[in-house]
Amino acid sequence: MCISDACGYEEAGSSTYVCCAGDTNAHFGLTDYCNMLEDGKKCWTDASCLHGYCAANGAGWVKGQCNTRNSVGLGGSCYNGSNPMCKGSTKCAKDQVDGEYICCHNVDSYLDKQYCYGMADGKKCKSNAMCSSGFCNGGGIFSTGRCRPMYSEGQRCYSESNDECHGGSCYRSTKDGNYKCCRSTNRCDLWDGGCMKGFSYCSYYGDRLG
Q1: Could you list the residue range(s) of the whole structural domain that residue 199 is in?
Q2: pLDDT at residue 208 above 50?
C-alpha cells in the first residue's frame, strides 16, 4: 500500500507502476497515472502536471511534456513547437533546419514546419528568406543549404550564384572563372578574344570584351 494512497504509472508511456508523490492520481483512458508531475515529465493531460500545462500533447492524442507557461525567454529551449511556454510575443520554432526548438521572434513556416527566420550565417536553411543575409547557399525544397553573407560590387561570389550578390549579378571576371559581383556585363561572342564563348563577363574586371 502507498502512504499517499495513490498509485499509478510514473509518467505517460512508462511501464513502471509506483506510489505517487502527490495524494491523487489522474485517470486517462482506463489507466491511472501519477499527477503533480514535475516539468520535463511525459504527460497526456494538463491535469497530470504540477504547473497545469502538458505541452504539445495534441489535446491528449499524443504524449506531451509537463512545462510551465510563459517560462522561457528569447533564445531559450522550448518543447516541440509549444508556443505557450515562450514569454511575451516570442514563439517556439526550430532555430535551423533539423535544429532545436527555441523561443524566438519572426517565426514563419516552410513546408508546414515552423522556423525562426533571420538565421545567422552558418545555420542550415531551405530558402533565402530564412537567412538574415538574404542568401541560403544550396537551399531548396529537396536540399538543405547554409546561410551565407551576400557580397557587394567587385567582391568574389564563390557560389557562382546571382543570389550571393547584393546587385543580383555574379559573373566571370577572367577567362576561366574568378566570379565576382558586377552589375555591368558583356557577353563573349564569336568575335571576342580572351574569353569563353557564350559566357557573360564582368566588364569592369579582367578582360574587357570588344
Answers
A1: 152-210
A2: no
